[in-house]
Amino acid sequence: MNSKKELKAKSQIQKIDPVVFEVKGKKLDLGCGNKKIEGAFGVDYFKTDCIDLEWNLEKPLPKKFWNSYDLVYSSSVLDHMGNPLQFLKNCVLYAKPNGFVQIAVDNADYWRYHKKGKPFGNYHSKLWFKHTKELEVQHKMMFQPGHVETMFKMLGLKIVKKELFWRQSIDFLFPKHLGTAHFSIVGKKTK
Questions:
Q1: What is the residue-level pLDDT of the chain in tens, covering all 191 positions?
Q2: Which long-range contacts (CB under 8 A, 24 or more apart) does 24-28 make?
Q3: What are the domain boundaries of the chain?
Q4: In the CATH scheme, what architecture does the domain 25-189 have?
Q5: Which of these, 2, 22, 141, 181, is most buried using a 10 Å CB contact count?
């Protein structure tokens, strides 16, 4: 039987995960951590029970991964990359022709990310002001949805779906783009 703490943690995970774009075929989950999407091949920088390959995502995967996947999915990774455009180029490289790339990431417009301290502050604002070796893989930058849309278009992806997700309590007092912590964008590889 699940404890109250386990149930609360499970509901929080469900609340912040984006809806994975539905495709048939092979899926690649980059930066999957402990939450690999169902049926995907999982790659992450840190070894967990869920991953199939431990790999530095700042570097391209071996050629056997290129043009191989119907969906290349990545959640909460782009903002940790030193070169996000190169990371997205690699995602496009791994997708088959007419395959899809889905990126879910923190929304830089979200009002709590700009507040320090309690009662409404968020851990993101604290991370921007300190740097330690342990934080090497922490946030390097944040994006508004328009930033990611622009990079998708630069890389030849046709945007097929956009979604803002994860609103809670007081967030509903704000316009959706300011009161939503995360967004997801899906692009189709047309080349």
A1: 444 444 333 333 334 567 889 999 999 999 998 889 999 999 998 888 889 999 999 999 999 999 999 999 999 899 989 899 999 999 999 999 999 999 999 888 887 777 666 656 555 555 554 555 455 557 778 899 999 999 999 999 999 999 988 777 777 778 787 878 889 999 999 97
A2: 24/70, 25/69, 25/70, 25/71, 25/96, 25/99, 26/68, 26/69, 26/70, 26/71, 27/69, 27/70, 27/71, 27/72, 27/73, 28/65, 28/68, 28/69, 28/71, 28/72, 28/73, 28/94
A3: 25-189
A4: 3-Layer(aba) Sandwich (3.40)
A5: 181
